[in-house]
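Example (one chain per record):
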Amino acid sequence: KKSKMAHFVANLVALLLLSASSVLAQGETAKITDGVYAFNLGAVELPYTSMFVVTGNGVMVVDPINSNSARVMLQEIRKITNEPIRYVFYSHDHWDHTSGGQVFKNEGAEIIAHTDANEWIKTHTGADQIPADSSWSGSRKEYSLGGFTMELHQFGPSHGNGMTIFVVNSQPRVAYVADLAAVKSTGPVYLPEFDTKGWENTLEKTLQLNFEKGVFTHSPPQGGTKQDLADHLGYVKDIRAGVKAELRKGTNPFAIPGVLKLDKYKDWAGYADQFPLNVMHFAIEEAVLGPYAAPAKKKNTIRSGSGSSKWHIKAGY
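Predicted structure:
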């Protein structure tokens, strides 16, 4: 049964990636600040936004997404600069973020990922994905190129393996956050592969970093601010508090998604259909299964808290 489910999931993700790669779109590039840009292929229902930095001595890219997105992003980069593509960074291990790397490798780029992400990618390589050329470990690493430094931060388990927060020392400073936050948008469906305690921990520690603007994978390329990340942390905490309050009243955990309402988020993308699924994840975690525990083979080299993928589903990731 387990192998059949794994086969089904693999086929589903491959189909989703194939569908994404078949989208014909011109793409949209937004200038965040001098040297820092965000690119989105143009998907309406589920934006996938990458970031690239033109340093004066080469280009750094974060998350190629897939080959189609990477090819169009390369065209967009070439409208801005002829500098070589030097580094491509993977935010974590999931196929829908870190496929398409070969497009930039063909340009001479070095692909870099946290070791927790890369070890998983090596043994679970997607159809459009290649492992990183080099990996880093621990909680922090810096890569400098031209007039810019890219900070890489890993705060332990949160979502997937090796989830990395990126901060560019531009003026103003810009962070890139994959999956863990978005601009006025709920979490993805039932929060697959989310370690919610680790999620909170990573958002809290990210808020302590020095940055003003944010680029979020599942928000339009114009991005947002540090406040958007703070708002998302509030959303996570409010769901947990609401679920715990219902459990104290004796509400059946499986009934909580139909009972709990958080009207302060009612205008967020995904609230109508994905908010109840987000709530279900917390209810099951708090009352049935306990904290998320990553499989033994997916241990992170950074420990904090307790241990989840995301699909191409409507707004809200």
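Caption: The longest helix spans residues 226-248.
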